[in-house]
Amino acid sequence: MVVIAKETVGNIPLLHAVDEHKQYDKLPLIIFIHGYESIKERNVQYAYMLAEKGYRVLLPEVIEHGERGSGQVNPANFWKFVLTTIKELPLIMDEYASKGLVDEKRIGLAGTSMGAIITLGAMTQYDWIRVGVSLMGSPAYMDFARYQLKAMEQQGVKLSFTEEQLEKQLDMLRPFDATVNIEQFETRPLLFWHGAKDVMVPYKQGYTFYEQLHERYERENVALSFILDEQAGHNVPNSGVVEVVNWFEKYL
What we know:
Blueprint: E1 2-9, E2 12-19, E3 27-33, H1 44-52, E4 56-60, H2 78-97, E5 102-112, H3 114-122, E6 131-135, H4 141-154, H5 163-173, E7 190-195, H6 204-220, E8 224-229, H7 238-251
Parallel strand pairs: 3-4, 3-5, 5-6, 6-7, 7-8
Antiparallel strand pairs: 1-2, 2-4
Helix pairs in contact: 1-7, 2-3
């Protein structure tokens, strides 16, 4: 039976899923991050199915969301959510590793939407992430930020910063932008899943990055896949959940 417990690391609430018979064993670890305006509980399906396969799964809450929020998420803080979560990941991993509960050679990271964007950015920073899964994410931080701003303008949102301020913000994202740190992705299995009808996070930025990686991965004989669901928008059907579980089971 899978046990799902509410725990905290510092001030980070999370859900911890594990097979009840393996609670105190050293296990491969998967951290799964929720999307924008979502909560950690929305990803329990992934956690349960992965824990059944023998993984220790942690679902952290992103700042201003769920237990860490007031019920109102400020869209202007999107990149604050992303960068703060990236910085918090080592705290979460170290907490469980220090207790002897993590096989540190088998750590995976995954997420949906904003969580997938966080996953790809984190992989530019931490080589202890051995396997990645991006569900509806963009690796191109700077280009995606520009896309967000354009979408806001089209919706009639007035932007109160100068071009100089914008460029300064984009420079802050550069170290985490996978498309300009592509060398960090040569030896780690990576799965992309995306809906072809997704307008919130269009798939083309991810697919372009996948194409850039393809030759490198093929040369190094490392697993790389891009699954494009022609019928899906900004949501992951059950078939996508199964693909995630299968990917980790095969490569982690």
